Amino acid sequence: MIAMIDYDAGNIRSVEKALMALGTQPILTRDPDRILEADGVILPGVGAFGDAMERLRGYGLLPAIYGTVERGVPFLGICLGLQLLFEESEESPGVRGLGILPGKICRIPQGEDKSGERLKVPQIGWNGLSFPREGRLFYGVPEGSYVYFVHSYYLKASDEGIVTATTRYGVDIHASVEWKNVFACQFHPEKSSAVGLRILENFISVVKEAQ
């Protein structure tokens, strides 16, 4: 069973529908016991970093998240869910993230890129991925595949050894990471057509292999 953490963030239902299209029936829950019993856990969502951390604490979900990671259960963060895994964000100064992975969430700079194209923030649209190293989420996904982004802040991981996908939008963006049983992506696989479904399918395969 895959549990999706419900903490009143946006876009959760889109992820649920994508998983159902792949033949998986996820459980949307904020019950810590259900999360800890799951074979895989997904932290999806869009929204503000500080508000999200406040809700996770308010619902008493932090022990379940840390417990899931410590037990080696496959864990996937999507968009805001990726950002929350790290230590801090420029969006919410003074607010501590989950700190499961080392790094900082930075604001995408406005202005022009190297080609002279003016960058709009938030970034909304399709960008191609580069793979600096092999990641289990990207089995069968060709280099350069396009995925859908909606974000004003991006990850700068302290340990580039965990980065499995990058893209560029004015700055180099760490678009996906993998560390032990923890996976995360800044883009939205649930909105990234066949490529995104393949990424979610790969996570489902990781969950099955871990059982």
Can you give me a brief rundown of this structure?
This protein has 211 residues and is an alpha/beta fold. It contains six helices and 14 strands. 40% of the residues are buried.
Low-pLDDT ranges = none
Give, in order, the helices and strands: EHEHEHHEHEEEEEEEEEEH
Number of strands: 14
By CATH reckoning, the class would read Alpha Beta
Number of helices: 6
Radius of gyration: 16 Å
Task: Describe it.
This protein is an alpha/beta fold and 211 residues long. 27% of the residues lie in helices and 30% in strands. It contains 6 helices and 14 strands. Strand 13 and strand 14 form a beta hairpin. The chain has one domain: Rossmann fold, CATH 3.40.50. The model has no long low-confidence stretch (mean pLDDT 95). It has helices at residues 12-21, 32-37, 49-58, 62-70, 80-84, 193-210, and strands at residues 2-5, 27-29, 40-43, 75-78, 88-89, 103-107, 111-112, 118-119, 123-128, 146-151, 153-157, 163-169, 171-179, 182-185. The strands form 4 sheets. Strands 2-1-3-4-14-13-12 form a 7-stranded mixed sheet.
Keywords, separated by commas or semicolons:
211 residues, 3-stranded mixed beta sheet, Rossmann fold, 30% strand, alpha/beta, 7-stranded mixed beta sheet, 27% helix
Question: What's the layout of helices and strands?
Answer:
Elements: E1 2-5, H1 12-21, E2 27-29, H2 32-37, E3 40-43, H3 49-58, H4 62-70, E4 75-78, H5 80-84, E5 88-89, E6 103-107, E7 111-112, E8 118-119, E9 123-128, E10 146-151, E11 153-157, E12 163-169, E13 171-179, E14 182-185, H6 193-210
Parallel strand pairs: 1-2, 1-3, 3-4, 4-14, 5-6
Antiparallel strand pairs: 6-11, 7-8, 9-10, 12-13, 13-14
